[in-house]
Specification:
Length: 391
C-alpha cells in the first residue's frame, strides 16, 4: 500500500538505544559536557522540563525538533547552555541524515526563498495565526479554559463517530474563503511566471504546499498550540505529545482536477483535515482501521468501517496510520486543508518496538486471540485434572 507522501527523514531523531556524539563545552558554570562515546539519550522524556527555543539558531533541522528532543537529553545535559545543547542534538540528528538528504533540504530551502522573494500574498493576515479571525467561537472557548479544565473542555467539542476518529467545528467561513482565494492567487502567479510548483505528495496531482509560499510559521503555531494539545489527549500512543514538525498543504478535487484518492495511509503521526469548501457532491472519506506495517493489508473489522462526509469549516483528526481513501467528487469543487503532524521521537522509538498493541487493530486482535487460546487451554487442563482426580 502506498504511503500518501514522501517521508521527511530529516525530522527523525534518535532513541535511547543509540549513542550520541559528545561535544566539549562549558556553560552556566557546571563544567564540561562529559566525553563519553556511549552517551545515550533517555528513553522517556522529562515532561516537567521546559525546553529552550531554537528559532534564532541556524541549522538544517527545524527549531521545534530541538525543543522536542531536548526533553530526552541525559539529566546532566538538561541545564547546560543552549548553544551546547543545540550542537549536541544537531550531531545526534546528523547521524540519521545523509549528505544527499541534507543537500535536498538545502535545495528545497532555496526553492522557497525564490518564491518568497517574488510572490505577493493576497491576504497577509493569513500568514500570522490569529485565533479570533481563524476559529469558530466554540473552538476558541474550549482552548481558553483553565489548565485543569482544558482537556475536558476540548473533549466536549469533539465527536467520535468511529474509534480513533474525531470531528469538530473549527474554521470560520470567512477564513476558509480567504485561504481558498490565497491558494488560487498563488496558482495564478505560478502559471504567469511559469515557476515550477511542487505538489503536496505523490498521490495528489493538484493543490499546493502552504509551507512553500510562507505559511510555515502560521501552521507550526497551529500545530504547537492546538493540534498538539488535541493529540496529547487522544493520540499519545503515536507520539501525539511530542509532535515536532509538519507538512501543510491544500488539495483540490473536481471533475477536471483530482477526482478521488486511493486507499492509503499518511506520512504523519496525526492528520488534521479541514474542508474549506466550495460547493460539491461526493468526496466522502472512507476509513478501514489503524494498522502497523506488518498488518497493512489485513482485512478491516466490522467496527472499523466508517464513511465521513465533509462539511466546510469542520475538521476531522485521526492517526496517520489510519487507513483511508476519498471517494469520487461527482460535482462541483472540493478543497481541503491538511496538516500532517509528525513526531521524530516516536518514529525513532518505533524502530525498536516489536508490537503495536496500543494502536494497531490487527495487533490487538491477535493479542485477544492469544489470550483466548491461553484461557481455553488452561480450562481444558483444569477439566482434565478434575476428571483424573474423580477417577
Amino acid at each position: 500500500m502506498p504511503a500518501d507522501g514522501v517521508a521527511d527523514r530529516r525530522n527523525d531523531a534518535p532513541s535511547s538505544s543509540l549513542p550520541a556524539t559528545p561535544i566539549n563545552g562549558n556553560a552556566n558554570g557546571i563544567g564540561p559536557i562529559p566525553m563519553n562515546s556511549s552517551f545515550r539519550l533517555r528513553l522517556n522524556p522529562r515532561h516537567d522540563h521546559q525546553p529552550d527555543g531554537y528559532e534564532d539558531l541556524q541549522s538544517e533541522f527545524t527549531p521545534l525538533l530541538f525543543s522536542s528532543l531536548e526533553r530526552y537529553l541525559p539529566p546532566n545535559l538538561l541545564n547546560v547552555g543552549r548553544e551546547n545543547k543545540h550542537r549536541y542534538m544537531r550531531e545526534v540528528l546528523r547521524r540519521y541524515s545523509t549528505e544527499g538528504e541534507r543537500n535536498r533540504v538545502q535545495k528545497h530551502r532555496e526553492y522557497r526563498r525564490k518564491i518568497l522573494s517574488s510572490y505577493q500574498p493576497l491576504y497577509r493576515d493569513l500568514y500570522r495565526l490569529n485565533p479570533t479571525n481563524f476559529f469558530v467561537p466554540s473552538f476558541i472557548k474550549a482552548f481558553s479554559a483553565h489548565d485543569f479544565d482544558r482537556d475536558e473542555s476540548i473533549k466536549n467539542i469533539m465527536s467520535e463517530p468511529a474509534p480513533g476518529i474525531y470531528t469538530f467545528n473549527m474554521l470560520q467561513p470567512r477564513f476558509c474563503e480567504m485561504l481558498v482565494a490565497e491558494v488560487e492567487n498563488f496558482e495564478k502567479w505560478i502559471h504567469e511566471t511559469k515557476f515550477r510548483i511542487m505538489r503536496p505528495n505523490t498521490m495528489n496531482k493538484f493543490g499546493a504546499v502552504l509551507d512553500d509560499f510562507g505559511m510555515d510559521a502560521m501552521l507550526e503555531k497551529l500545530m504547537e498550540d492546538f493540534v498538539r494539545h488535541i493529540s496529547k489527549i487522544f493520540f499519545a500512543d503515536v507520539g501525539g505529545f511530542a509532535l515536532d514538525s509538519h507538512h501543510g498543504f491544500v488539495v483540490e478535487y473536481s471533475l477536471n482536477r483530482d477526482i478521488e484518492l486511493g486507499f492509503h495511509v499518511d506520512d504523519s503521526e496525526v492528520t488534521l483535515n479541514v474542508c474549506l469548501g466550495k460547493q460539491f457532491s461526493g468526496g466522502e472519506l472512507y476509513f478501514r482501521g489503524v494498522r502497523c506495517d506488518k498488518h497493512m493489508n489485513a482485512e478491516a473489522l466490522p467496527e472499523e468501517i466508517f464513511d465521513y462526509s465533509h462539511v466546510p469549516g469542520h475538521a476531522i483528526i485521526h492517526r496517520g496510520r489510519h487507513r483511508h481513501g476519498a471517494r469520487a467528487t461527482t460535482a462541483g469543487q472540493r478543497i481541503n486543508l491538511l496538516l500532517w503532524c509528525r513526531s521524530s521521537v516516536f518514529r525513532e522509538l518505533r524502530k525498536h518496538q516489536k508490537g503495536y498493541v496500543s494502536w494497531c487493530g490487527e495487533c490487538q486482535r491477535e493479542r485477544r486471540e492469544r489470550i483466548h487460546q491461553a484461557v481455553t487451554a488452561k480450562k481444558m487442563e483444569l477439566f482434565r485434572g478434575q476428571g483424573e482426580a474423580a477417577s
